[in-house]
Amino acid sequence: MPIRILDPGLVAQIAAGEVVERPASVVKELVENALDAGASRIEVEIEGGGRRRIRVADDGSGIPAAEVPLAFARHATSKLSSVEDLFRVTTLGFRGEALAAIAAVARVTCRTRAVGEDLGVELRIEGGRILAQRPLARPPGTEMIVEDLFFNTPARLKFLKGEGAERRQIDLWITRYALAYPHVHFVLRHNGREIFSLPAAREPRHRLAALYGAELADALLEVSEEADGVQVYGWISPPGIDRPDRQELVFFVNGRWVQDRMLPAAVLQAYHTLLPSGRYPWVFLWVKLPPERVDVNVHPAKIEVRFRDPDGLFRAVQRAVHRALRESTPVPVFQAAEIPVRATEFPARPVPMPSEDLAGEPAEERASPGLPPLRVIGQIQARYIIAEGPDGLYLLDQHAAHERVLYEALQAQRQQGPLPAQPLLQPVLIDVLPEEMSLLEENRGLLEELGFRIEPFGPRTVRLQAVPAVLSAEAILSVFQDLLLDLQESRRPVEGALEAQLIRSICKRAAVKAGQVLSVEQMQHLVRALERCAMPWACPHGRPTILRFPIGQLARQFGREE
Amino acid sequence: MDVTISQSTFERALSVAGRAVPSRATLPTLTHVLLQAEPGRLKVAGTDLNLAIITWEEALVSEPGGITVPAKPLAEFISALPDEPIHLRVHRETWTLQIVCGSYETAMKGLDPEEYPILPDLEGDGFALDPEDFRLAIDQVTFAAAADETRPILTGVLIRWEEGHGGGAGGAAALTLAAADGYRLSVKTLPVLRAPVAASEPGSTFSVIVPASTLKEVGRILKGETEPVSMMVLRGRNQVGFRLSRAAVLSQLIEGQFPDFQAIIPKRWETRVEISREALWKACKALSVFARETSNAVRLALIPGEGDQPGQVLLQSRSPEKGETRVAIDALVEGNRLEIAFNVRFLMDVLEAIEGDWVAFEMTTPQSPVKVLSVGDPSFVHVVMPMFL
Ligand SMILES: Nc1ncnc2c1ncn2[C@@H]1O[C@H](COP(=O)(O)OP(=O)(O)O)[C@@H](O)[C@H]1O
Ligand SMILES: [Mg+2]
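^ inputs. structure came back:
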């Protein structure tokens, strides 16, 4: 469809309002345009938190030379033609206002070449006035450069937050779109430094891993449901992996990141008792439904939507999440088929299939979060603790269980302030690469909160002065190496993800190791502490801490029908 | 080889030498113990090439000779036997060890002792040390050494000799032992009964770093020893040896530069506490149960006495589930009131290492190293870094 000016009747029906509030909104609009143009690669370069310069380049369809000036006119769009279109929007943009609004408050350079045309165009426009237009040779696609944002509206400038805050907001948007469009290669740079380059991912899960770390991605549960035209799919965290805020309740409706009340409510209801109060899961859910069943024309920034059938959707989402959670049994029942019970020869009386037992468990019992009181019997392989509970035999993985105990204790401490630090009598000097040095510098505040005191000492050396107190029995240099790995790994702009990752690593290092012989007292202490945990059945990495052998199953396995 | 030895004696010898035998090794003979019959005694030795433990026990030797046999199976078999004389006999053609004890009899496949590493004799001039003093010194320093293999030097104990710088009571000749793990430091002066001739020359000094694990083994064997122990440094081999009346321990030294520990020991204090070691230990023990989930932290408030009020040490630990636990102990507190936090494990370690009834803590600020002393015993100094909460 060519770009054309919408007729006034249609304009009147479009949610009115300002779209360019801050640098991040510019980035969002430009990235949406690139996605609408079918780009397979989008590069975003930011300088000065977006105030100085924003550049978004794509390899999409480009804008036909003759239409370029029109693209910057108000209410000019190629994405809508009639009122009916407004009720079945399939593109991210449709208002035809973004480029005009941006060009009104910045110096914009647009370089583009449409697929099928031989020559491209460069247009320079400033404060809404076209300054120059000339032909240009370039590959198909579009490059938008927005400089000196709000140069002519000083009042606006005053309301901008600092570079860091603007930058975080930009990163958040890029992260959202990178998640929603995993097959698009995204590159993000700040002040010349590459933050990430995410090649096209075959599966959304790979993109999730690239942004949030493989560890989290691997631990997440898959959600996938489809019923009468509504598709709900994505990933959610299992009980035991949670966070203190709602920041990572992420929803995409028809490829659009949305802010909505109903969708998180549906998800949280499905989790009900599985989360301690004040804790929230990680949720990445895609909802796909026919465009006419969702109204996107609600808010000028297009981040709110209205559903034709909200109740139906609520139930669909809740059902999908509930099923994914139910399928991950909290205290996994041991799969008895793995024991070679054939050794006992009772051919006339076949061993009942363990699945029957599983099916016979009432669902409530499996979903209940706490552990019953357990009596420690002993340790095997210096790895597992055997315990007896009212309803069977329990096996604990000592390392995973201790990780969980530490994780909850450290999380609780973090709520109250920094973690205790154990300083060294004499600082340890460690040589680092320039790259590592800047990572340490960048995260210095967070590291101090977690108990690490690390100061630069010359261009390539740091002084390690303190470590988190729980790690004082561990090898200092290995602790430091772990830290560098985590920092390198988690070059992702997701707020809170790095801290959570670091805390998980601290727990992993500090927890008793497999192979460590424990006294009865130590085992009892560990079991008691695990019983007190809000989420006792999984370690912070999502592996089970405990397995249960139901009494009934034991009886049947021994051929003792009772 | 043809030897008769009592079961309990042989069992003890195997368990002592067995501590140096690795459970897995690339060289099969290393998982063996060496049995060597010498006139009137049986020598039993084990080594992993870093540490060797050799012990001699009285035995009736009818024919000298030797063999190596797998250490663990042998020790397990011997410990299951009744306490009766054991008759050991080697068949050299097949290198098998025949073991007969009462009505029990077995044969074990072994190897030619020629294939076993050569362990040098520890005859010669060394530092003569009182066994009880030495054992105590080992206990007081090795706990402060690091288990952290990534900083090998700190897994060792520095042993230093400076001729003329006695340090021992009344300026008597003494060795200095020091160990540090990064968070704490223990320094002990150990009187020398007699120094070797080479070390007695004026100005003679040396320092070596001995693996703490070696010293712990020596400490274990020292229990019950009554004769002076001789320590000798085998310079050319980069080894140190300890000769006891019926055993010897030989170990590789750790190479490198030990940190300058003198610089770490605080020279002054603002707050000084003298407190009953036992009362403080008991309080720490009680609080450690609660401190476990909170990084082992205990807070101490040191409150100087006023008028006829005695000074007090208030200990407190917090855990998210159980809330707060407090203990108050009367103590002699001089100087300023101070609040400070420690890893309770570190406190308990030093309290367990000290022997006297009263322990003193000297501190300047909550962020500075703290000196811990055994009141009335100038031979021991400990320094521990407080925790930041
Ligand atoms: N990156 C791009 N690639 C191709 N066409 C673009 C691009 N950016 C903008 N356009 C064209 O300019 C028009 C106006 O863009 P915009 O002001 O954002 O309005 P809208 O996206 O709502 O249509 C779009 O409809 C589209 O035709
Ligand atoms: Mg647009």
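The interface with chain A takes residues 147-151, 180, 182-185, 259, 264, 289, 292-297, 319-321, 341, 343, 345, 367, 369, 383, 385-389 of chain B (CB under 8 Å). The longest strand of chain B covers residues 323-335.
thumbs up if we can close this ticket
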